[in-house]
Design brief:
The protein has about 120 residues and is of the alpha+beta class. About 35% of the residues lie in helices and about 30% in strands. The chain has three helices and five strands. The protein has helices at about 5-15, 45-65, 85-95, and strands at about 20-30, 30-40, 70-75, 95-100, 110-115. The strands form two sheets. The chain has a three-stranded mixed sheet with strand order 1-2-3. The chain is globular.
Length: about 120
């Protein structure tokens, strides 16, 4: 199963619903498979947003027949430790707490930090 294919199909539907598709994962946990769709929006994503989108996308996924076999559909927010991949992600994160992990040393230190994301 190609998550890129799912992402390509789901992204325009997310945009039509004023949502940003952040990531798509397909994982096996125990005997079960999970298709996880992570969404965000300005002001933050709610449980109602996730439930409404799951209703919309569930029928579409069945019609596209991209995912083989049985799976559980999980639509949720990307969470507090989400990766910031592009400028839109950064805009959605402004004025919120973020967790920063440095790849290289900064001022002689390579430590993980929690900070506020300000412009």
């Amino acid at each position: 199963m190609q998550t890129k294919k799912v992402f390509t199909h789901v992204e325009p539907i997310a945009k039509d619903n004023d949502l940003k598709l952040v990531e798509v994962n397909y994982v096996k946990e125990g005997p079960d498979f999970f298709l996880r769709i992570f969404l965000d929006k300005k002001g933050g994503i709610t449980l109602d947003d996730c439930a409404a989108f799951a209703e919309i996308i569930s029928a579409e996924l069945d019609e596209w027949d991209i995912v083989e076999g049985a799976y559980y559909l999980d639509v949720s927010s990307p969470g507090a430790e989400r990766p910031i991949k592009d400028e839109e992600d950064l805009e959605l994160t402004l004025n919120k707490g973020i967790y920063v992990k440095a790849y290289k040393q900064i001022d002689g230190e390579k430590v993980d930090r929690h900070t506020d994301c300000l412009r």
